[in-house]
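tokens incoming
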């Protein structure tokens, strides 16, 4: 989870491969109307997000094996909703970075519907996971292999 450009797809794919699970890009689960809206530089509202969050929860709930879905899940209420739809344990991995780091990534990215102009709205909406949530926070300002290693180490620590 995290704002656009934090590395959800890259980290999710690498982590799923390491864990022997599947990765689903939450961007692929957005209704077309959401993609059109974001492409036009218009931030999504909560009512835009609910059907998408339902679909994410159903996708996780129907997985037969370890499943990772990259999605923003910016607010606690969104994460709680996903947990409710899944009806089972859901862990979140918050890929955290500074606005400057993420803006550089967004500006370098090509062929994605999310424009850098929406980054401020994403940070304004972001509610980092609370201490009472099952979540891991990792600093993304390091190479991909280090981010994945940090997540794996945190997962192993939680499981022991």
């Amino acid at each position: 989870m995290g704002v656009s450009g934090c590395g959800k797809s890259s980290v999710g794919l690498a982590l799923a491969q390491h864990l022997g699970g599947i990765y689903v890009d939450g961007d692929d689960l957005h209704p077309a109307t959401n993609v059109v809206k974001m492409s036009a530089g218009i931030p999504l509202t909560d009512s835009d997000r609910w059907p998408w969050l339902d679909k994410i929860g159903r996708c996780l709930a129907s997985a037969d094996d370890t499943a990772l879905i990259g999605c923003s899940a910016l607010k606690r209420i969104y994460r709680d909703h996903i947990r409710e739809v899944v009806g089972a344990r859901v862990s979140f991995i918050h890929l955290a970075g500074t606005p400057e780091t993420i803006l550089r990534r967004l500006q370098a990215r090509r062929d994605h519907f999310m424009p850098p102009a929406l980054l401020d709205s994403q940070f304004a909406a972001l509610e980092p996971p609370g201490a009472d949530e099952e979540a891991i926070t990792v600093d993304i300002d390091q190479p991909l292999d280090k981010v994945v290693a940090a997540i794996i180490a945190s997962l192993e620590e939680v499981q022991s």
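note: The radius of gyration is 15 Å.
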